[in-house]
Amino acid sequence: MRIAQSVQRIIAPELLRLRAGVLVTVVRVEVSKDLHAAQVHYAVTGADHAEVQEQLEEMTGGLRRKLAKGLATKKVPTVSFIAALEPGDGRP
């Protein structure tokens, strides 16, 4: 399985726990070739992007630990979140 797919599979369920009434959807995941960084592009419904971005940034340490357990690699990417303005575009 590709690393990006694994990152998405591990992170997506965690996004559901943000807050009731808020839908955060992973649009796509980009992982650097050296596996040091993963950019998670996401779309938000039902909340302010800035508020959700702040919550996601607070979650990065825990998400990275989950990635370490769930990925079959020596390197665990640092996760950053990028809000997509339009669902499906993957870029702000």
Explain the layout of strands and helices.
Layout: H1 3-15, E1 23-31, E2 37-45, H2 49-70, E3 78-83
Helix pairs in contact: 1-2
Provide the spatial order of strands within the biggest beta sheet: 1-2-3
Helix content: 25-40%
CATH level 1 class label: Alpha Beta
Oligomer: single chain
Contiguous helical run count: 2
Tally of separate domains? 1
Shape type: globular
Order of helices and strands: HEEHE
Segments where pLDDT lies below 50 for 5+ residues?
87-92
- CATH domain topology: GMP Synthetase, Chain A, domain 3
Proportion of residues in extended strands: 25-35%
How many strands appear in the DSSP assignment?
3
Largest sheet, in brief, is: 3 strands, mixed
CATH superfamily label: K homology (KH) domain
**Mean of the pLDDT scores?**
81
The chain-level structural class is: alpha+beta
CATH architectural name? 2-Layer Sandwich
Keywords: Ribosome biogenesis
InterPro entries: KH_dom-like_a/b, RbfA, RbfA_dom_sf
Protein name: Ribosome-binding factor A
Keywords:
26% strand; ribosome biogenesis; alpha+beta; three-stranded mixed sheet; 2 helices; GMP Synthetase, Chain A, domain 3; 92 residues; 3 strands
Describe the structure.
Pfam families: RBFA. This protein is an alpha+beta fold. Helices cover 38% and strands 26% of the residues. It is built from two helices and three strands, in the order H-E-E-H-E. The protein has helices at residues 3-15, 49-70; strands at residues 23-31, 37-45, 78-83. The protein has a three-stranded mixed sheet, with helices on one face. Residues 87-92 have low confidence and may be disordered.
